[in-house]
Amino acid sequence: MPTGWFGLWYQRGMNSLLEIADDRIETKGLCVDVLSSHQYYLFLDRLNRCTRCLVFIQRHMNLLQYRESECNDPDDLVNITLCPNLIAPDAALYTLHRKNSTPQLCPIQPPFQLLSLIKDGSVCHQSISSSYLNECANPYKLQLHLSPCSVYQSILG
Q1: Where's the DUF7044 domain (predicted)?
Q2: Confidence class of residue 143 from pLDDT cuts 50, 70 and 90?
Q3: Which residues form the domain of 42?
């Protein structure tokens, strides 16, 4: 697993922190194989005597999301390439927040003026000049100001 993921993480609904270490995740077991091109990981859960696949999406250095397969008999799953087919597309998406995370500067540098506002297939021209995205006094937050629009012009034909 990537070293940037090592550490303690919060997961909603869990009573304790989740630890990601060299080759294991505390509640998932030992990582025994990786399909790194798609972020799939195969875990051996000795406690429950099963294997399970996880797919990770790193949204930010302080935020990970994952989906997982059901617990499978270890003899049934011998190849990591089966993992993409074992995780249901509608499987729950879990979010992990890093404990003791450090704030990161925003990758975009405001101010930005909004060029078009579209609602229900109509565009608003009236409020465009006064709608903008700007930075706050805190460098880790942005301010979005949207002016109301009373007249929308249909853009669908």
Answers
A1: 2-76
A2: confident
A3: 3-98
